[in-house]
Specification:
The complex is a heterodimer of chains A (328) and B (455). Chain A is an alpha/beta fold and 328 residues long. Helix content of chain A is 36%, strand content 14%. A 5-stranded parallel sheet of chain A has the order 7-6-5-8-9. A 4-stranded parallel sheet of chain A has the order 2-1-3-4, with helices on both faces. The chains are: A alpha/beta (328), B alpha/beta (455). The A-B interface holds A 1, 3-4, 93-95, 97-98, 116, 118-121, 123-124, 127-128, 138-142, 177, 179, 182, 186, 205-211, 240-241 and B 187-188, 193-204, 270-274, 311-312, 314-321, 424, 429-430.
Chain lengths: 328, 455
């Protein structure tokens, strides 16, 4: 709305969707996360580059795991984290979103981590306020830090981002409602990964090509030639109007079971953003060396540390005087 | 007659067969003469050099928000925008609070609207409360004076009620305006279904939601007689259906909005709710198809679908923000900008080049094919739109002198602070727009001078 009125104060940098980042910036984030991994392994201590910064978490939709991951990431770098408990009743009409964000600003927060059931809410907050906004999942739109963490995990597993070129990743599940799938497609395609989306027609997006991906309604057709099988959580609570497929017909066609697991190439990897619905999308014990599921959680924290330090870094904020400096 | 005689000189004048270098003499409320060179001794001269002179515009689709929502718009604000935009007439939709669904409400509201400096005709709803459950009392509304019935804002899903409404239309000689949109396919949608909606994760409405209802309504029209106006056409297939129905001699008319001609769904990438409208902005290729159809003459009218909303209903998450944009004052500019976008089509390059270039282009600096398009647009904004509501207007002797003078070559940047609305949901903020409304007369009275209100 005031998108064209020029702003005298340089705007803070936000991460609302993958397209906010250049390829170089993505690689910097992976590198920085790697630095944090080494610090974690060597000393378990991190520099407090975010000392005096206040990070607010604003979760309009429940998610203990994601909020903890962001909180831990910010605290490890010395930031003070405040959580604004938002009751669902006050946001169900959506009217208080701007007011809530004005309050967060007035409290002196530098960055706000937002999870919201409505697509685009973090972008709107970034345009209404001068907060650095980190999208922690907005409706069916994006979940950029999850995808960045996953890229970091893939990079580690395959020996660098450059080795991901021409790798084939199948994302399986409810593509239509998956923000993780959208962020992954937007991110992985840039580094030469070929993505195939797999799920039943009622869970498939109308134009997979818009996400730069191929698609298939048949997991068996895909499973034999993947480098990575990325299973999505089947979230019944996200479905508007209900599936046509029953859980039984879904599992029959799209569950990673013993038979399909054996059809996968022996070097291929299984991923999942968690938490896993055992017996729904996954019904097999994946060998430890072929599962990145636990690693994804750990790397998620390291990547979120990288994101915080990067978006609150001077270079990303147009040279505004900063409270701390990056020493990592 | 002691009234002042005014001569509008030096412009290109809208005639049924084209734009012609003519002068217009006005005395009192009427046009007294239209001729190549009118003697202006003892007359006040209005210089229309470099401009086109048209009948003032008719809008077949305005949301007045009266009664019910003065925070969004008032009759005064609306009238001001209409005059600045070159309009003499607005058709006010029935989705007000309360709904215009009875003769008594229609009469009371119509009486209030009479105090506006332009004519505002009130439409009635087709169903009680626009709920799609029960028809309004057509007979008493028509007897009270209602000519146009529409549930605009919602498609009338019930085939039976639409069938009954069109029979009423045939019986009473009134028009049914349909917001063609299948309620099931539209359910939950906040934008067009396409590559952008897939990327944004928003629920999209497919074009077939509109065209399937247009197809159904045409079948109903054949079965019942009656007169159907298709509001804000936004789907490619709807155009084909309407053309075919017109070819069969059915009484059908159709309008297109400036925003569907100028904007497309890629503009929603930033979740800017000022681009949220119903029917939604379509793909770039559909947008271009609509422009080509409009130039070719498939639509009777350009209609603003001016839909003001208080800012706080737009300052919500995208899927919860209100549908609609303001666009009355900017309708000519937005449409003309859209009309200039495509390069000349082969047929346009061949038709009457000598006719247009030698006589017309000496007065307005446009290419012959551009002048042809301008003629088409002015036809749609004036006489064509008037025909939709059963009126005949023209620039000719003895006609009422409701005239607008437009400069088609000036460019400006859209600015909400120049729009006289109470609302700010303006989609052309910062966008380059072509054309300018320079002067205006309503019934011989000069109300707009150098782009400013004057009365």
């Amino acid at each position: 709305m005031n998108r064209l009125i020029s702003d005298p104060v340089p705007r803070r940098r936000s991460l609302t969707q993958i397209s906010d980042l250049s390829d170089t910036e993505v690689l910097e984030l992976v590198e920085r996360a790697e630095t944090y991994r080494q610090m974690e392994e060597n000393t378990k201590r991190f520099s407090d580059v975010l000392k005096d910064f206040v990070v607010a978490t604003l979760f309009f939709e429940g998610s203990t795991r994601t909020r903890l991951s962001f909180t831990l990431a910010a605290e490890r770098l010395g930031a003070r984290v405040i959580d604004l408990g938002v009751s669902m009743s006050s946001v169900s009409k959506g009217e208080s979103l701007k007011d809530t964000c004005d309050t967060v600003s007035a409290l002196g927060a530098d960055a706000v981590v937002v999870r919201h059931p409505n697509e685009g809410a973090p972008l709107q907050i970034a345009s209404w306020t001068n907060l650095a906004v980190v999208n922690a999942g907005d409706g069916c739109h994006e979940h950029p830090t999850q995808a960045l963490g996953d890229l970091f995990s893939l990079s580690s597993a395959f020996g660098g981002v450059k080795n991901l070129s021409a790798k084939r990743v199948a994302i399986v599940g409810d593509i239509l409602h998956s923000r993780v799938a959208r962020s992954l497609c937007s991110l992985l395609g840039r580094f030469g990964v070929s993505v195939v989306l797999v799920g039943p027609p009622d869970m498939m997006v109308d134009r997979p090509s818009a996400l730069g991906a191929e698609f298939s309604y048949d997991l068996d057709e895909v499973v034999g030639e993947v480098d990575v099988l990325y299973l999505l959580r089947i979230q019944r609570e996200r479905i508007r109007g209900g599936y046509n497929s029953s859980i039984e017909s879904y599992t029959k066609r799209f569950q990673l079971d013993q038979k399909r697991y054996q059809k996968m190439p022996s070097t291929s990897i299984v991923m999942h953003p968690g938490p896993v619905n055992r017996g729904v999308e996954l019904a097999v014990k994946v060998a430890e060396e072929r599962s990145l599921i636990a690693e994804q959680v750990r790397n998620g924290v390291l990547m979120r540390m990288a994101v915080f330090s990067k978006i609150l870094d001077t270079a990303w904020i147009g040279g505004q005087p900063q409270k701390g400096a990056f020493h990592g | 007659m002691s009234e002042e005689k005014i001569v509008i000189k030096g412009g290109l004048v809208l005639r049924p067969d084209g734009l012609h270098p003519l002068d217009i003499a006005i005395q009192g409320e009427v046009i007294t003469e239209v001729a190549p060179e009118i003697d202006s001794t003892d007359s006040r001269v209005v210089d229309a050099g470099g401009c086109v002179v048209s009948t003032s515009f008719y809008d077949t689709h305005t949301h007045s928000r009266f009664p019910g929502d003065p925070e969004a718009e008032t009759i005064d604000n609306l009238s001001e925008q209409a005059l600045l935009g070159g309009y003499q007439y607005l058709l006010a939709m029935a989705n007000t609070e309360p709904t215009i669904d009875s003769a008594s409400i229609w009469k009371a509201v119509s009486d209030e609207l009479k105090r506006a400096p332009i004519e505002i005709e009130q439409a009635a709803s087709i169903t009680v409360g626009r709920k799609g459950e029960r028809l309004v009392d057509f007979v008493s509304l028509a007897e009270a004076g209602a000519n146009f019935f529409t549930d605009d804002g919602t498609g009338l899903g019930s085939t039976k009620l639409m069938y009954e409404a069109l029979k009423m239309s045939d019986l009473l000689g009134v028009t049914i305006g349909q917001h063609a949109q299948d309620p099931f396919l539209f359910d939950g949608a906040s934008m067009n279904l396409g590559a952008t909606s897939v990327r944004l994760g928003l629920i999209g409405e497919p074009e077939v939601s509109e065209s399937s209802m247009v197809a159904r309504d045409i079948e109903l029209l054949k079965a019942t007689g009656g007169r159907l106006h298709v509001l804000h056409v936004s789907a490619r297939e709807s155009i084909n259906l309407i053309r075919a129905a017109r070819g069969e001699g059915l009484r059908i008319s159709a309008e297109v909005t400036p925003h569907h001609l100028l904007l497309n769904d890629s503009m929603l990438e930033g979740f800017d709710t000022s681009f949220k409208v119903n029917p939604p902005l379509r793909s770039r290729s559909t947008q271009m198809a609509l422009v080509a159809s409009a130039i070719r003459g498939d639509f009777d009218a350009v209609a603003s679908d001016h839909a003001p909303h208080p800012y706080h209903t737009k300052q919500r998450p995208f899927s919860q923000a209100s549908f609609g944009m303001i666009g009355l004052q900017s309708a000519f500019l937005a449409s003309w900008s859209a009309f200039l976008e495509p390069p000349a089509f082969p047929p346009e390059m061949n038709i009457g080049a000598e006719h247009w270039s030698q006589r017309a282009t000496t007065r307005v600096a446009l290419e012959p094919f551009e002048l042809q398009r301008l003629h088409r647009l002015l036809e749609m904004m004036g006489p064509g739109a008037a025909r939709v509501v059963g009126r005949r207007i023209a620039i000719e002797p003895n006609a009422l002198a409701s005239i607008v003078v437009c400069d088609p070559t000036t460019e400006s940047v859209g600015r909400i602070d120049e729009i006289a609305s109470n609302s700010t949901n303006f989609p052309y903020q910062g966008r380059n727009l072509k054309g300018r409304i320079v002067a205006g007369f309503i019934r011989g009275k000069e109300i707009l001078k150098e782009g400013k209100l004057w009365f």
